[in-house]
Amino acid sequence: MLKELVPWPLLLLTLSLQRLSTVSLVQSRLHTEAVLIPGDIVLGGLFPVHEKGGGTPCGPNIYHRGVQRLEAMLFAVDKINREDNLLPGITLGVHILDTCGRDTYALNQSLHFVRASLSNIDISVLECGDRSTPRVKKTASAGPIFGVIGGSYSSVSLQVANLLRLFHIPQISPASTAKALSDKTRYISLSTLKLEKLELYIFIRK
């Protein structure tokens, strides 16, 4: 259940709410902020919208590069949804969460994606040890997650990949460069931008 509508500083000022009229910014009792857009296919997003905190996972300061990456994902999804010839009859949605640039916090956030996917399974065929039917707790979600974009740091991507691979959820990490992430025997569902392509991109930008 969506608990409460909340502002997300700076991000809300730059989102085009006229185009993204179905955007929901929600906050649970654990102060987990999220951008939710329902769709036939929902993509997860993990971006460092806030900087790390001192004694808390997230600090009060906004990390502008993380906001830019979040906006880029929203722009791309909106662009695809407006092109009828790309995915005819199918609408993309998003479930985007803040990592605050902290690997352990990102891992905890990723559990929301897993819960969202598990909430869509048919539990009628499952049975507990006492022969009772299990109950899956519903969480605020735009729908089952078909894939995740993020994180922005290699340490974050490593933590998240270790969880998502257990549930066969594809992950794309365009900003992570750790060689360990290229190990397909371990991270079969993870794709990264090859280092030489990233270096070429940085060179062109300069």
TrEMBL record:
Residues 69-192 form the Receptor ligand binding region domain. Residues 1-25 form the signal peptide. This is Metabotropic glutamate receptor. It comes from Lasius niger (Black garden ant). It is found in: Cell membrane. PROSITE patterns: G_PROTEIN_RECEP_F3_1 (PS00979). It is a multi-pass membrane protein. The keyword Signal applies.
